[in-house]
Design a protein that fits this description.
alpha+beta, Nucleoside Triphosphate Pyrophosphohydrolase, three-stranded antiparallel sheet, 6 helices, four-stranded mixed sheet, 213 residues, 27% helix, single chain
Amino acid sequence: MGRRHPGQIFLPDTFVFPGGRVEPGDRALARRLALPAREAERLSYAVHGRPTDARATALALAAIRETFEETGFLVGTPTPAAPPAPASAPASWLEFLDGGHHPHLDGLTFFARAITPPGRPRRYDTRFFLTDAATVTHCPGSLDGELLDIDWFTLDEARRLKLPSITQHVLEDIAKLLARPAKRLTVRDVPFYRHRYGRFERTLLRPPERDGR
């Protein structure tokens, strides 16, 4: 996690996970790569418009790219001999690919979705992903400066930070997941946090065939 700059309009001086919006380069790269079918399907639950595998993959790629830009950590797989990025690679991905890695989509799990409450200066429809720390490599370099005090935090340490309420809910759901026996760590239903009629609501996004059961 990292602390957002005090001068920022949205959530100033608050600790958050790295992340940001999907960019054209993510959509372009998503046409060449693909998430595992299971994760692509889960990202299609309750979306606006027509869900596609490329759209789902672009969301995951945005998470990986923004994590790299804001923290210097690569969720990637090393490539043999570290070949340079192809000339056709999106500009926003050149530094990541030139470092000798490909985005590790197979290691991502779509874990939660949240929509910012009405009335905020900026609103986002956000997806949260989990990955094993073994898939992460640190690549010291130029960061975009959006996050300060970047560090790893245990759940107990994170609970003591200044956090957005949504991040608190995500952390508690992660804690519940990690408390399960190892054989039950598979994520199926997706927590969905939003405000409706002025009240916070946590529901579960599920496969269509399970609705109403």
